[in-house]
Structure formats: C-alpha cells, structure tokens
Amino acid sequence: MPAVADAPVPTSEPRVTRLEAELAATKARLAAAERERDEARQGLESLRKAYPRALEHLALLRRRLFVETAERVEACGEQLAFDALFAEVQRLEQALDDAERAAPAAAPEGEAGEPKRRRGGKGRATKRPPPAKYVDTNS
Fold first, then answer.
1. pTM of the full predicted structure?
2. pLDDT class for 102, splitting at 50, 70, 90?
3. How far is CA 35 from the centre of its chain?
C-alpha cells in the first residue's frame, strides 16, 4: 500500500504563476502605500515644526506692533505684516488639524492612541488682539 504523505501534490503551473503575479502586485501596492504614509508623516512633522515658529513670530510682531503704535500713530506696514502672518498661522493651524484628523484613520494600530492637541484656552492665535491704543509720551 503506497504512503499517501509521500505522494507528490500535483501543482497547476498557471495557478502558481497567477498567485505569484498577485503577490508581486500586492507587494508593489504595499510599497506605494508605505511611501505615501512616510511622505504624509514628513509633511505632518514639518507642519508641527512650522506652527510653533509661526506663533512665536506672530507674538513678536504683536509686541512690535503694540510698541510702535504706542510711540506713533502710523503702523500700516507692521499691521499688514501682522495680518499676513496671522493668516499664515491660521492656514498652518487648519492644515495641521486636517492632517491630524486624517492621521489616526490611516495610522497603524498602536499609533492612533497619541495624545491629542489641546483646544481652546488662553493665548490662542485665532483671536485677533485688541487694537493698539495711542499713548502720549510727551505729557
């Protein structure tokens, strides 16, 4: 009686070829998805670095604008620079929020539990500062 375990399993050459092609296509899709994920992470990281820098620059311009406005009435150039930077900070904040909302859905398991950014509170850049008032230094 021949042993059943010793009998060679008939293989279908077209089936093996098809499965190898599917495996290669799956590996290519995986590599593309990993590249896309890495690019998204780099973009998110650059946004995370740019946002605090923009906030610091905004605070510096706010102080300069207040001091210069207190010294003289005209501060048009500084106000325009402040408004432009304020718009840039808002754009960065929106992009960062959008990226962080999209990141947990695409993140692998275990990374989705990262702490979320705090929202609200004092010192948010979304509120426009009160207009600077003229202070008479001659009296």
1. 0.39
2. confident
3. 16
